[in-house]
Amino acid sequence: MKKRNLILTIGITALCSILVVTLLLYPANPPKDLQHAVANAIDFFEGSREPYALLWLDVMHRRFEIEAFADALQRYDQVLAENPPDAPLLRVFRRIADHDNQLQDGDMQSVVIEVDRITVPALYCDRMGLTDNYRWMLEGAAFQGGYMLTHALLAYVWLKENDCAVPLSTYFIQDMYHATAALIGNDQVVTDLELEAAAFLYLAGQGALVNDAFVDRVIEVQNSDGGWLFSSDTPGNSDWHSSILGLFILLHREYPANSYPPMLAPASS
Question: How many CA atoms lie within 13 A of 3 on its CB side?
Fold first, then answer.
C-alpha cells in the first residue's frame, strides 16, 4: 500500500513538473516582440490616405528613416488636391512636413477647433508672430488637462523648434511635463489620451517619464492588424489616431537616442 502511494506521489509530482515546464516554455499568451509590433504597425499604414496620419508618417520617415513612409508627403498632397472642402485646414497643417509651405487667403479661418487654436499659432510663430495673450492661452490650456494639456505640450514643442520665445516659467514647463505623464494610468486599459500623452512626451524629449510597464501594455493590446483601438477595453476597429501614436511610441523604444531630428520639417537649404 505504501509502495503504491509512493509511486502515485512520484507520478503526480512528475506530471506537475511537466506541466510547469510546458507553461514556462509555451505560455498561453506569449509576450509580443517590440520589433514585430513595430513591423505590424508599419504595415497597418500601408497605402493609408488619412491625411493627418500621413503627416505623422512623414515625421517618422525623417526621424527614424522608415522607408515605407518616404512618400507620405506626396500622398498627403494627393489627398489635399482631391478634397477641396478640406483643403484650407490641410494646407495649414502641411507645414509640419514642409517648412516653406504656402498658404492661401482665408486658410487660417479654417482653424476653429479649440486644440488647433493652441497649436497652429506655434506652428507659424516664426512667420506670423504670436498674439500678446498667447502665453495665457497656452497656460490656460495646460491647466484644463486632458487633450488640451497634451496639445499645450505639443504647442510648446513647436514653439521651441521654431525658436519662438514665450515667457513661460521653468516651474510651469516642468509641471506640464509631469501633469502629462500623470495622464498615463496604471491599469491594463490603454486609451487614446494615454497614447497621446506618451507620444508627446517623447516629442518633448521627456521619454524618461513614460514607464516601461505602459509601453509593455501598448505592445500587448495591439490588434492583429497592427493598429490600436481608441480604448483597448472597447471592441471595434483600429483607430488611425491611436495607431499613429502607438507606432510613434514604439519607434522611440526601438530606436533610442539622446536626441532626434525635430518634428517640424527644417527650412530648405
Answer: 0
- Average pLDDT over every residue of 262-267: 96
Number of domains composing the chain:
2
Tracing cell 536626441 back to the chain, one arrives at: 259
Contact, 161 vs 264, CB < 8 A? yes
- Alpha-carbon dihedral 37, 43, 44, 50, rounded to 10 degrees: 130
Cβ neighbours of 139 (radius 10 Å): 16
Closest CA to 124 of 149, 86, 91, 170: 91
Task: Answer whether 0.85 is exceeded by the pTM.
Answer: yes
Which residue is listed with cell 497592427? Answer: 226
Question: Do 228 and 114 share a structural domain?
Answer: yes
pLDDT category of residue 7 using cuts at 50, 70 and 90: very low
In DSSP notation, 171-220 reads HHHHHHHHHHHHTS-SSS--BHHHHHHHHHHHHTT-GGGS-HHHHHHHHH
Whether residues 112 and 16 fall in one domain: no
User: How many residues are listed for the chain in this entry?
Assistant: 269
Full domain range(s) for residue 77: 33-254
Structure confidence at residue 19 (pLDDT): 38
Query: Cα separation of 213 and 209, whole Å?
Result: 12
Query: In the predicted model, is pLDDT for residue 137 greater than 70?
Result: yes
Residue 267 lies in a domain: no
Angstrom distance (rounded) from CA 87 to CA 79: 9
In a domain, 261, yes or no: no
Q: Are residues 94 and 70 in the same domain?
A: yes
How far apart CA 25 and CA 102 sit, in angstroms, is 58
Would you say 110 and 116 are in contact if contact means Cβ atoms under 8 Å apart? no
- Are residues 119 and 23 part of one domain? no
